[in-house]
Design a protein that fits this description.
This protein has about 150 residues and is mostly beta strands. It is about 10% helix and about 35% strand. It has one domain: YVTN repeat-like/Quinoprotein amine dehydrogenase (Methylamine Dehydrogenase, Chain H, 7 Propeller), CATH 2.130.10.
């Protein structure tokens, strides 16, 4: 009887939380056989919900979330092989993606494969840690840098 009373008292004071499947974190496997890389940024593809763009220390990978299948083949055209710190989708046109690099500024793609560097970036705007597109005026892009502060285009 004492044990039942203590159990009841313990549950009343410290309720048990039952986790749903949505509350459980699962590692997405690396199926390439290559060593795992540090992940700096993750962006679900707005057009393909099972596809993730993953920014790593060596570039961008396309990963199928359900299986972990990874591809970089034909991906990253004109995007330098360097660290990607941030990935965002355009707020009104989700096929437009931006990538902030670890030494070459901001790149943009409209097809997820061919990347072009945004023009007019000063040398001080090289290592990008944050990007935002103004939702009211999408021609305005903000960039936060590692050492030089906040820029606007």
């Amino acid at each position: 009887m004492k044990r039942v009373l203590l159990t009841f008292l313990a549950l009343a004071l410290f309720p048990v939380t039952v986790l749903s499947q949505a509350d459980v974190w699962t590692l997405i496997p690396n199926t390439t056989g290559a060593p795992s890389r540090p992940v700096n940024a993750v962006l679900p593809d707005p057009r393909a919900p099972d596809t993730l763009y993953v920014g790593t220390d060596t570039g961008i990978l396309r990963v199928r979330a359900s299986t972990g299948d990874t591809s970089a083949a034909g991906f990253g055209t004109r995007l330098p092989a360097q660290g990607i710190f941030v990935l965002i989708a355009h707020p009104r046109t989700p096929s437009i993606l931006y990538a902030g690099t670890s030494g070459d500024g901001i790149y943009k793609t409209t097809d997820g494969a061919t990347w072009t560097k945004l023009p007019g970036q000063p040398a001080a705007m090289n290592t990008i840690h944050a990007i935002a597109v103004d939702p009211r005026d999408t021609s305005i892009v903000y960039a936060g840098t590692l050492a030089s502060g906040l820029f606007r285009r």
